[in-house]
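Quick one: structure for this chain?
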Amino acid sequence: MKKIIYIAFTALLMAGCHFLDFDETSGIYTREDRYKTYDNIKKMLTNIYGYMPNKDIVDISSAMRDCGSDDAEYGDPDASVQRFNNGYWSPTSTVDTKWDLYYGIRAANEFLESMKTVDLSMYEHVAGFAEQMEHMNYYPYQARVLRAYYLFELARRYGDIAMPLSMLSIEEANSIGKTKFDDVIDFIAEECDTCANHLPVSYKDLKDAEIGRVTKAFAMGVKTKALLYAASPLFNPGGNAEKWQKAAKAAKDIIDLGLYELDPNETCNSTDSPEVIFQIFRSESQSFERRNFPVRFTLGDRGTSMSETYPTQNLVDAFQTLAGHDVTLDDTGWHSADPAFDPTKPYEGRDPRFARAILADGMAFKGSTIEAFVGGADYHATRQEHGSPTGYFLRRYIQEETDFDPEAPVKAMHVWIVYRYAEVLLTYAEAVNEYLGGPDVTDATFDNSARWAINQVRANAGMPLLDAGITTKEAFRTALQREWRVEFAFEDHRFWDVRRWKIGNETQKQIDGVQIENNGGVKTYTRKNVEVRPWADKMYLYPIPQSEIFSNPNLTPQNPDW
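Got it. Here's what it folds into:
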């Protein structure tokens, strides 16, 4: 039977940093003991997986990171995620630091060092030994890819970072200097190349195969993602074409594997999608739905927490009609050049990805119809009443079958996507366009154009091919940025894309929603301002926590303007 690795960020199999604090004097949990049996070694590796960032979640406030971008607003105005939006974050008031990833890196370093002396030969005559050794041969490479991924997560937040690659003493940890961003990316790329050559494309043919382990393609994906960021304007201000070439080649290498294909069905919460390259499995729960169902569907089970994620009108504007025409909302109502667009039914006939990401007025949900208009069943005037400040509700990742009936409660498992094939294609499209200078240019290496790649994604979504009139690098770049946004809405991309493209000054200053009035069955729609947000270019990178600089002065200089 296949087994799924359930990774619980706040309740690891064994508790994070404390797990590595061995008591060498007790004789119970020595470091050597942890590596004397196959089962213990496997637990040590699973512990490293446990540091995988909790998908889309900023911190214990349970806010999706998209709430720190123009795609969403968070219900609680005092939650820490709001520091991204009100400017009240600093080296002494941080948010989403993910500094605990250094515990994961330390765990990986400890694992790799310990594995050098593992000897389980005493068990060679025990049934299943050969199969266990086959699994264990992959363990060091899995740990190395996880370490590389954690380094990437830190680098995209901070730029230059400390990069410990061995176990450090307290003194060493408090004196290690920073490694340049480009050098971190080079290490990640080389490490992933090495590991990809030793990892399987799948574990399904192994006895006791497990879903959720690092594969060859995910190793290649970590490299591809890292190189894409290195090529992007934030980290490549001079527009070095070679960086785009490397990113394009890394994406092409995954495409050429021929292992994955786009899935016309919803990929979120799917355990067997042919598109998903790496995902995180969460055990059955109701917590995500408790926070994000329109409140009437929680049967009063939400309590007083204002922990909802509300999509914005800014995001809604990004979804075209089925015919590929733009749709906008202003003070006078809806507008589109699409002759089939009905401004009295603005959420019909839209890009199918809209209904997968957003719940809007008039949509069917749990045997009912969403009523977001003033006075409707899902309208509440204030956030304290769990009213949507934007007029929209979250749909992505929601398990609709979840039920809060105390007599027959229903929980559901959630599967958070880390990397899927559509990202490979859009990475290829972006990198080839920037490297070759246009959407239709090819060469001996890149025989498929950037247009070809984006059209693969659009066709899979049921959308028409990209407008043939888009022929310049700049126009294609704009179209591609929209495609990233709608394809990966609420999959933890927009927050980071705004930064790597350096478009915060144009996109992050005003958040809008919709006001819907229902007059005898005739609805009118008006754009409304929800929030004005400050933006400063220093926000492209996170500030290094001041507490860490106090502990280790070699982490200076602080990031610019912080």
